[in-house]
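Obj.: predict assembly geometry.
Materials: sequence records (below).
Method: joint structure prediction, all chains together.
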Amino acid sequence: MMAMEFLKKREIPLLITSLSVVVMLIGYFLSISVLKDVSSLLNRTVMIIGGTATIIGIINVAMLYVRRITQRQEGHWYFAIYGLIMIAITCYLGFAHGPASEIYIKYFQSIIVPLYSAMTGLLIFFITTATYRAFRARTLEGTLLLVSGCLVLLGNAPFGELISPVFPQISKWILDVPNGAAARGMTIGSGIGFVALGLRIMLGRERAAVPGGGE
Amino acid sequence: MIIEKGRIVDFVLTVAFGVIIYYYIQQATKGKYREVRRLPPLDGIEEAVRRAVEMGRPIQMSTGMGGFGAETMAGLAVLSHLAKLCAQYGADLIVSVIGTNKIPVTEAIVQQGYEDAGKPEEYALGKQVRWLSNDQFAWAGGMIGIVEREQVAAQVLVGQFMAEALIIVEAGMRRGALQVAGTAFIPDIPFFVASCNYCLITEEIFAAGAYLSKDPQQIGSISGQDIVRLILLGIIVVGILAAVVGSNFMVDLLGV
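Observations (raw structure tokens):
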């Protein structure tokens, strides 16, 4: 009991986090073989934990579905039955025939491939509607976006080059120069923010890393 | 050489930046820090919670894809604040999770939020935090399902989002949900700007935890970031001037 209380303290996870970060960082910058081995071990451990955590996820979702069915939650419970059946079939095929078996792959792909195609199809329509909303010349920035967007479209669409060979050049310039410059600025800003966030986590000031931190 | 070849300058800069940011954190501990400018998207989170309460509908949150990268950590910091607000105001919170390894951490953060608000009894395992899938589009489909079936009043999306981002925010847009979104993945920024009410652009998500906590030490780290940014700006200007006069010394120096 006392051991559990000790392990729950925020200092322990914080110490593990800080040590892992230091080892990974030093392993990246310095050529010390022991540290490289340790950082490689840490990477492998993360993968193993991630794989094991799938079991937690399946239990979590199964519990949720069972609760929905037993409580007859409006608009949910029949989907929960379907979800449970799919989990059971997948587990059965995976355990009985193996994840590399033909039946398992066929079962998986015959569901996943059409669903992925449907989602990608949705994405195309959503890009169009979002573009329509964004491309409105109500402000100076909006007008700039509209004009540059149209030029990039013309530069990338096959008929743009047929109208004028200048369009692909303009499109490339917009993407490489103003767009590239802004994107690099954002990337540098992100990198600095990342360092600051990492330090806050290591110092235990970031609540996300250790619940209760930053209080 | 103990430092890997080609990483000497990287090492020096990383250590120097860390020291600068740490110095400003320490200064903030002594009460010496500057106020952070207003970030409307983060203020919009409270607006989203209030809207959810007024409409009697839930608010959906996601920290996006990936493991425990920087963007996810930033998203979890926002979640921590959001969970506390939801508990305080009595809004229904749904956290849609992709990646099973994130479930225990997400649950712990949401639970802590409810405890901080003095309403631990309102947190229930599996009620707020829902694992939808480990697959990108299945998870996105699950989120759209929640938007449609539960008619969410608002969505808060802060973390690592990719091709599925537009699908999720457009579903919220069509449902009329108030949306706050942020990511460091640049190709998704236009999608969020087009479809959301508030958008956090790249590094703003990393400042979110500090901004929302109002903790001086965390805010101090943002002052440190500004100094680092100025130094980098100086390096860029020197590099540009050197390139203009035909010198390659900055490129050579950074490659050491």
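Conclusions so far: The mean pLDDT of chain A is 84.
To do: check interface contacts against the pulldown list.
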